[in-house]
Amino acid sequence: GDELVGYGMATALMSTFRFGASARLTVRRDGSLLVETAAHEIGSGAHTMLAQIAASELGIPIERVEVVLGDTTLPEAGGTFGSATTLSVGSAVEIAGRRLRARLDELAGEPGLEPREYPDLLALHRLDRVSEEGIWAPRREDNAFAMAAFGAVFVEVRVGRIVPVARVTRAVGVYSAGRIISPVLARSQVVGGIIWGLGQALTEGSRIDPLTGGFLGKGFGGYHVPCAADIPAIEVEFVAEDDRRASPLGARGVGEIGTIGVGAAVANAIFNATGHRHRSLPIEPR
Questions:
Q1: Are the C-beta atoms of 255 and 177 separated by less than 8 Å?
Q2: Residue 42 DSSP code
Q3: Which segments in the chain show pLDDT lower than 70?
């Protein structure tokens, strides 16, 4: 028809950031589990991810796990940035879970205590709760190894022949990020990153007034981000991995990797469709 179709791809690489963290896990007399750490939730699903790790370690249903974050009186943890929360804080939670399970087995006098037996055990010892802390920090010897999440991004674009506006009609991303703790959360993170990358490629521009040096688009009227109608079908896959050198969990990091490479893939697809190479963003009709 009246559209040029192009395909483009690009690679992605995001260094694996790691920091020391600590967490406290508590089994209460009613059989519920409390997870406490000073990490932060910024919308990336830290509550769910930490609850999953703790529930898996203690065998307690996730709906009976309470996660408390973001208070400086709690066990110390780093900030939520650099795609590092899961592998760093999650490792501390896993270690705390193992120590707590061992403590409960010790109280029981034998290993293999069932989670349904926790309330009776605490009642027998006249305890309201049993707590253990876990601390994890990167090992110095691991600094000799490069660590990163990797990816490859593929997009399909359509460019109008008469009005040369580019539309991305399909995006596919495949990533290597170590063990994926929560596939649903990880996929959502990467889909959001790809959408961010599409905005970078086609709509978002920080224009500056040459006389005053001030930004011209200070609101959504002048700074355009993608809306639902701009977003195509997005497919995300992860390579099955378990990187124990990066963290005890086997995870590396998912977050920023979703945005990396998307703009380059779109630029390559537009070049494939039109023969015109763009080297600045956003890509606009000329």
A1: no
A2: S
A3: none
Structure tokens belonging to residue 257: 């990797």
Angstrom distances, CA of residue 102 to CA of 59, 77, 107, 179: 13, 23, 9, 25
Q: How many residues does the chain have?
A: 286
Active-site choice (133, 204, 256, 284) = 256
Whether the pTM exceeds 0.85: the reply is: yes
Nearest Cα neighbor of 4 from 142, 163, 230 is 163
Quick: pLDDT tens for 171-230.
999 999 999 999 999 999 999 999 999 999 999 988 888 999 998 888 888 888 999 999
Q: Is 114 a catalytic residue?
A: no
**What is d(CA 174, CA 196) in angstroms, rounded to the nearest whole number?**
16
CA distance 106 to 118: 12
How many CA atoms does the CB half-sphere of 93 hold within 13 Å? 35
Which residues neighbour 122 within 8 Å (Cβ) at sequence distance 6 or greater?
Answer: 27, 28, 29, 128, 129, 130
